[in-house]
Write a structure and sequence with these properties.
Blueprint lengths: L4 H17 L17 H40 L2 H16 L1 H17 L2 H31 L1 H16 L2 H12 L3 H11 L1 H13 L3 H9 L4 H30 L1 H8 L4 H10 L3 H27 L6 H6 L2 H21 L16 H13 L1 H26 L11 H22 L1 H20 L2 H16 L1 H16 L3 H30 L2 H16 L6 H8 L3 H12 L1 H12 L3 H9 L4 H30 L1 H4 L7 H11 L2 H32 L1
Helix pairs in contact: 1-21, 2-5, 2-7, 2-32, 3-4, 3-14, 3-16, 4-14, 5-6, 5-8, 5-9, 5-11, 6-32, 7-8, 7-31, 7-32, 8-12, 9-11, 10-11, 11-14, 12-13, 13-14, 18-20, 18-23, 19-20, 21-22, 22-32, 23-24, 23-26, 23-27, 23-29, 23-31, 24-27, 25-26, 26-29, 27-29, 28-29, 29-32, 31-32
Amino acid sequence: MDPALLPWCALAVLTALCLLLRAELPWLVNFPKEWTLPLAVYVNAATDAIVAVVQPAFRALSAMLDAPMRGARLVLAWLPWPAVMLCVAALAMKSSGGRLAIFALLALAYILLAGYWPQSMNTLSLVLLAVPISTVLGFLLGVLGYARPRLRQVLLGVLDLMQTVPAFAYLIPLLLLFGFGPVVGLIASAIYATPPMVRNTMLGLDRVPAAISEAGLMSGCTRRQQFWQVEVPTALPQLLVGFNQTTMAALSMVIVAAIIGGFEDIGWEVLSSMRKAEFGQSILSGLVIALLAILIDRLTIGFARGPETGPTRAMQWMTPRRLVLSLAVAVALAVANRLATPDATLLPETGLRMEMGAVNQWLLGLVRDYAWFFDGVRNVVLYCLLLPLRVGISGSATPAIWGFALSPAVAAAYFALVLAAAGLMLRGFGWRAALAVAVAGLVLYTGFLGLPWPIFILAVALLAGQVAGLRLGLFALAGFALILVNGLWPQLVQSLYLCTLAVLLCLLVGGALGTWAAHSDRVSRILRPICDALQTMPQFVFLIPALMFFKVGEFTALIAIVLYAIVPPIRYVEHGLRHVRADVVEAVEQMGATPMQTLLQAKLPLALPVVMLGLNQTIMAALSMLAIAALVGTRDLGQAVYVALGKADAGMGLIAGLSIAFLAILADRLIQAAVADKTSAV
């Protein structure tokens, strides 16, 4: 017998005992409130003491940042829209050529005609100030991590926390330190957007070839000259990729910043229209953010890729001198016109948003007329997928829910079927596959809410210990224990079953689309711009269509999470299948395998490490959407963070945010270890 199987056998016995005794010992399922510890109270007490000392300095910093932010808003509001459009078109021409310039003009024309030009300029003022702060800070931290290997691991751990803690959790200490206002949104955006620049700086400097560094030393460069004149220029493409990701991260925070900033920008327009159920305005303003995100992404990634990837004629024509000259002429003409007619705004008197009342009524009528369809879809998913994962088959099979009760004979037949399936997996794939089937059958029967918490914690800790080592097992044990004693176990369970279902749906649908795209260039070309758009849209935008058709509730949150997290499985499955070794595929086909056999028995096993990386990114995306999905009525850890933000409860917000970060880091480390194991096996 495999020694690794023995702990699982002991855990199976303990599981049976807990399930038999959970009626007599209800604390096995519901952790008693009397056993919880008031850690949030202690954190609040420490926070209050620290804030009282450092708040004046942070308020002074807020006042210092308020002036340049107001200045940027006034300048962008004062510049006529033709000047801005010509400048952006010239930059787009230099970045990627004429096609992007045309797209830039069309996107800006839509923003103008929609009536959101002033709000968009206010949003750009926030981004234009947040991005330089994030870029400089991220570059300095990245250089520090590159030059000091001992600090690198600490820095990477901090970055993992920053990228996995929900954005709402950032806002609570910032509100206490800086107060309400646009500056808080600016600072939150800058902090949120810093990690991509740090990682790309370290990655770019690490990838500088040793031969280039040695050539700089042999040329007589000092260490400073070698860094600035040799290493940084060589790493510049990767640094520009970091700048691209930093810019997109800052833009994705505009709606979150609007929650605590409260000034007239496009994020506030989206948020206020969603709150008033004005779906026409929500779609209109959400599309503005999406277009801005796509445009900024294409601009920055075009400069990151370098001129060799763009249209040659456009690049040769748009030299830096001509670019500067074109921008200067455009701005000069527009400014001269503004000075001649200072009262003229050159903006349309009414935008499309002023005409959206009829569209709102039409959308509400559409939702009302087809409510039977949308309610039917929601109820099917709720009662057939969400509810069984939450309370299990044993809780769903009641006359009030499914219309019948689960008899002991049916329950026995169910467990017999699960054991038979586990036996088949044992013969074909080993005890680990059989164990996975048995665990899935148990969770489906009891649901996440009905599973005894000691069994869940021990099972995950044991899995982490066997897959990635003792340290990760202890980390899992400590993290779940911290969540448990803080009274957040019900919220954790809600988060787990919601994210589990979202990830499964993403893998099913996204994996199928990725497989189709891997075998069809036409499908790949169709899916590529769709994935690009989904990947660049801020998270809040995904709530608009889900909220419009399905109202508030867990199903709406599930739709938003799936829309946001479906891109990684599509991209990674397609990439993995397209890069399987051709000689292996040919050998399998020559042996007489059918296309389906080739896919299932050759391509997918070889592409599994890449697919697992896609699974990792899918889980990260699903967890990051929890706090955003809390706005539409979930009761998970994201809702705990959002409620803590409303109460300015720093302790609970920090603990709930760290709980989500813990889940993300644990899943990331588990999948990384599994991928490393698969890669070494291959």
